[in-house]
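Page 47, continued from p. 46.
Same chain as before, 328 aa.
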Amino acid sequence: MMDIKEINEKIQRESAFVDLLQMEMGKVIIGQKYMIERLLIGMLSNGHLLLEGVPGLAKTLAIKSLAMAIHAKFNRIQFTPDLLPADLLGTMIYSQKKEEFTVRRGPIFANFILADEINRAPAKVQSALLEAMQERQVTIGDTTHKLEEPFLVLATQNPIEQEGTYQLPEAQVDRFMLKIVIGYPSKEDEKMIIRQNIAEVFPTVNQVIHPQDIIKARGTVREVYMDEKIEKYILDIVFATRSPQDYNLAKLTQMISYGGSPRASISLALASKAYAFIKRRGYVIPEDVRAICHDVLRHRIGITYEAEAENITTENIISEILNAVEVP
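Result:
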């Protein structure tokens, strides 16, 4: 076992590329530091992200820039009601020349996938994508094809227009490590965005690291030290979503229909380690858990009709839990 000092020194050395990546992406994406940070956390902890925000907030540009900075393959898939699983995964095509069936791979075979407006496609397509996300493999015909690492899915949802959409079932939403809600940029940032977009030359993103570096960094993220007290803190937060009355939060019992699954605890622990890594620290502190908690839990807590009637959101519930659970 390495001691904490050694781990800390190792992580300070190996996390140097994080600043490079953020600087490179910052050339083209202005004012979305929160989104960029969450993208890196998802990538470093091998989890997928669900992004909610109105159109035009640089969601496509963010993941495309990340792929360019890592020199990884990027595909954008626009989800529509007439999309079929074969359009996503690929299919078997008969070759008359060879007189046999050959596999034609779909756009899922890339390192970074942008599933744009995932709730626009029917359940069959959504579940085909989620199988690829979970198993990291695709079956076409009789053959199973492994997906290339690193593999990251960034799915987007438009919160405004719900007509003609197919809502993701809770069990499928749970497979996303983080759900990120992004808002509009500030006035200053938007002024910079306008200037950048009407200038003669739009900045380009250069490659700063290789995909192999990301795979190596994922191993290092798991080495980040997590004390037993932090583990207990994570468990307390997740268990407070299931039985709030045990944490002096009896009033939330009527508000929560279901709490976070064990996947929530795993994601919270991994995301906290990745957050510490991004902050170039070799150990997790309670602030890391609190910083990432809303993103990990907001899509994993079900709220009752009573909560909706009182305009109580999952955000309010998570904040109440964080205020009530004892910090180590």
